[in-house]
């Protein structure tokens, strides 16, 4: 049997997949982005979001189905999120507030109230772009595909995070940074800025800096600093008692999580980066834990998280003063190796999608050394 000719399919995919964007520009497509906690998407709700420079409606039917649509009515461009969920004989639909056009959660048009019976108009031909959505571990993820028609379907599932324990997220904080997601990611994984940007008595300072050696290895769509004992100058870990062991993982397009084990107890600190526009990124930090100390320390942890976010936000604003001039940036080993990996991962992701082949992780196992 002659194998099928896959060249036309690959050519079509390559034609619609943009080339790898320069650092600080463009977005990772054909990927899952965190958009909300499940508990924040109430039945019967409609909420407007902006993701990757696109208006997106996130909603939940009264029967419990989460959905995502482009938040523009194709009739006169009114935001569908300003409408309401109704059931007027076609099942649950989203009713536009301007002229009452109704759309199913899959994006298909169900009704146009202004039509009279004698007017032959194929309502089913009208569609709003639908974005695939998944709920997993109490989180809502949206698939941002490369096909602008929204016809593509996910070929992989959202990440699964270890340590989601304790009956739901115990602490959630977020902030919007005036930054492209690339710069936000690099700031998130930068191991050398802590002693200078985050100088708290309970964390560390530049006076406690010393050389560190950490082993890294590739992981699905990313890499991990393999499980190890926390650094001796990271004082916050001491409140957990015992002998904590931590592993820090990064995954495209913008997830970083630290999983801490202390005996049979766990703490998971997950950071999700969600690009709003090319110049604005939402950073959400979510914590789970079944460790008894977490309940006692939660008020202090919240203060610490907010302080860290504000300090990082202040540094982003300072950095933007220089980035306005589009300077060349210098990346050094080993402190900036993770930043280099991120750029390599992005390039390989775009290239593998364009060529219609499996993603090949460019990260190799290595031990990195730096001072912090």
Automatic annotation (TrEMBL):
Q: Where is the Rieske domain?
A: 32-142
A Pfam family this chain is assigned to: Rieske
Q: Which organism is it from?
A: Brevundimonas viscosa
Protein name per the record: Phenylpropionate dioxygenase, large terminal subunit
Instruction: Please give the start and end residues of each transmembrane region.
Output: none
- What keywords are annotated for this sequence in UniProt? 2Fe-2S, Dioxygenase, Iron, Iron-sulfur, Metal-binding, Oxidoreductase
List, alphabetically, the InterPro entries matched: Cholesterol_7-desaturase (IPR050584), Rieske_2Fe-2S (IPR017941), Rieske_2Fe-2S_sf (IPR036922)
Gene Ontology molecular function, alphabetical: 2 iron, 2 sulfur cluster binding; dioxygenase activity; metal ion binding
Q: Does the keyword Metal-binding apply?
A: yes
User: Which PANTHER family does this UniProt record tie to the protein?
Assistant: 3-KETOSTEROID-9-ALPHA-MONOOXYGENASE, OXYGENASE COMPONENT, IRON-SULFUR DOMAIN CONTAINING PROTEIN
Is the Metal-binding keyword given for this protein? yes
